[in-house]
Amino acid sequence: MTTAETIKAITRDHLTRGHGLLLGQCVTAVGWIGGTVPNCDGIVEIPMTDVAGPAFAVGCALMGRRPIFVVRYQGFMWYNASSLVNYAAKSRQVWGRPCPIFVRSIGMEGNGIGHTASSSLHSLFMHSPGMPVAAPMTPREYRAVWEHFMAHDDPIYVSEHRRSFPLTEDLPAPRHRRADVTLIGISAARLNALNAVARLEAAGLDVDLFHLVWLKPFEPEPALLDSLARTGLGLVVDSDYEVAGAARSFAYELMHRTGVPVHALGLDDRVCGVASHLENITPSATRIYDRVVQLVEAAGTRRRPAQARQHPRLARTAPDAA
Amino acid sequence: MTTDTIRPTSAPRSAGLGLIPGLAATFSREFSLEMFRRASFIRQFELQTARARDAERFTIPVYLAVGQEFTAAALSMVLPGVPIFAQHRAHGLYLAFGDDPAALRDELLGLPTGCSGGMSGSNAIQGPAIGLVGHSGLMGEQVPIAVGAALASQQPVLTVCGDASVEEDYIYPSLGWAASRPLPVLFVCEDNGLSILTPKAVRRTWSVVDLARSLGVPAVDITDDPWLIAHHAREMSRALPGFINIQTVRHMWHAGTGVDGVPEWDRYQLVRDEMTRMGLSDEVARIEHDTTAQAKEIWA
User: Fold this and answer.
1) Whole-angstrom distance, CA of residue A208 vs CA of residue B278
2) A52–chain B nearest CA distance, Å
3) Which residues of B touch A67 (CB under 8 A)?
4) What secondary structure does DSSP assign to B52-63, as a single string?
5) Candidates B134, B141, B150; nearest CB to A55
6) Which contacts qualify for A6-12: CB closer than 8 Å, 24 or more apart?
7) Which value, to the nearest 10 degrees, does the dihedral of the CA atoms of residues B213, B214, B217, B220 take?
8) B296 phi and psi, to 5 degrees?
9) Nearest-CA residue of chain B relative to A66?
10) Which residues of B touch A (CB under 8 A)?
11) In which band, very low, low, confident or very high, does the pLDDT at B9 lie, cut at 50, 70 and 90?
């Protein structure tokens, strides 16, 4: 079963057996959100209102319907944010009244969709108290996030990515006894990181790769901290903007916990264009490869020159195009 | 742009807008007395609250309902038990529908025993016992939340906003969606003609009643006579959605206890006069004695 099929199955069960609701704009048109929306009772097409729409979902949540609120393009969250962060996220702490909404915010990028609809904005919601943030990619991860939602009363911001929809299995997470660098991936950057790892290993660098699903609360697993202690070097890669974003936030947190330099790589601080050469998308495998090589070389000349000299094949650019 | 260049399309503000002759007499004596008791208590509670604020017993911003008591009192008489989605200046609704005044006092004092444990203050109060849902302080946001609640519950809900709130982005889609599905929402606008101190005529040329009607929501524009409010709220509740724009008068500042001058009209006094004509002056005096004592005791 793919991630898309998993989302669809979870949703159908929630709507038909859980008294739930799903609200969104145009959710029953043009592919039904990548095949993630079932055709059943409980689907509510809302009008084209990116300001009031989430507040409709808030009202449903206050009435106990645990709605799923779908935003087809995560870039639209700038406009959909107000009632989610200003009401749903605060409700339990201010009034003691839970307002559980499962926010499906779907990241898309490239292919000419432009600056308004594209990108992932989970960092934006990490700023808001009262709202856990997750970025599941695989069927197992998605189901775990859903089960957390159903077991708790907080609204949850789920940063989905279209590239997760065809996945069927958990992503590999290579580990080494003597890795050169610790790589930490978020959202679709995890897929590019995997690709980069393969090229780095072909080039003679061993990489420990960790996948982050829960962005808030951020609770790094002990193995991640151990890896950083061993490699002495980390890089967080993300599909969101780098400046003031999740990647830098986690790098900061990890540095303070381990004393190890941890760097960040995300979207550039510029508006993306529609033309392919103007896009601003998830760091490619090539960018990740180049950044890792740069960091290892810099760290190696500073701290481990012998090891750095052992990798004469390292090139500034990956052998294959991203 | 100056106020002179803007053409207001709303009905002129008036203490007599939409009045129906003889309407008060169609309500029972008990109805009128209870409605007056609720309004009288709101006034006395709010006056005592103002005194406490002036004495710096608390220092947070306070949004008093003095002058607008009868909107809450009238709605509470005909819409018992409905979930309420209101905004700042909701002390009146909280008290009229019957939640605990001591918990409201404690909220203003920032105590754990406050209706929101000190988290909401005056402008974001909730009334769990009466179904008054907490408001975030972002005016107008409560309206689509009410619409969503009506969708989810398929039960009537009441949402109350102000004449500035209806200019918020939340309102048009809420009215439109409530009309389209349709959904059982009674929209009430407490139209005191002011956004803080900016008159409505400076802010817009359109009428929210016209807007509601254009979207298919039955709407009326009336003054704040309580029997008139009760009449329309009761009638509209038979086939929701509906919209009532109530022209009312805020006697005190938007926030705080200051007064800018003589109010356009004093509905409280007008109702007292009407109650006297109805032969209820003795009962009115007793009610005022009791509500004054009750409010003083709460704030003692």
Assistant:
1) 86
2) 5
3) 152
4) HHHTTS--S---
5) B141
6) A6/A139, A6/A142, A6/A143, A7/A36, A7/A104, A7/A142, A7/A160, A7/A165, A8/A35, A8/A36, A8/A37, A8/A38, A9/A38, A10/A142, A10/A143, A10/A146, A11/A36, A11/A37, A11/A38, A11/A68, A12/A38, A12/A40
7) -10
8) -65, -40
9) B152
10) 85, 116-117, 119-120, 124, 126, 128, 133-134, 136, 138, 141, 143-153, 169-170, 173-174, 176-177, 180
11) low
Q: Which option is the CATH number for A3-164: 3.40.50.970, 3.90.550.10, 3.10.20.30, 3.40.50.150? A: 3.40.50.970
Give CA–CA dist B61/B255, Å, rounded.
6
CA proximity to B80, closest of B230, B244, B245, B290:
B230
Kind and range of the H or E run holding B274:
helix B267-277
Nearest to B148 among A58, A91, A95 (CB): A58
Fold category of B27-299 in CATH: Rossmann fold (3.40.50)
CA distance A155 to chain B (A): 15
In our burial notation (b when 16+ CB lie closer than 10 A, e otherwise), range A132-163 reads: bbbbbbbbbbbbebbeebeeeebbbbbbbbbb
CB atoms within 10 A of CB A250: 23
B105-140 pLDDT, tens per residue?
999 999 999 999 999 999 999 999 999 999 999 999
Q: Which two tokens stand for residue B262?
A: 């003589």
- With CB atoms and an 8 Å threshold, state whether B152 touches A90: no
Q: Where along chain B do its domains lie? A: 27-299
For the whole model, what pTM was predicted?
0.94
pLDDT confidence of residue B163: 94
Architecture (CATH level 2) of domain A181-309: 3-Layer(aba) Sandwich (3.40)
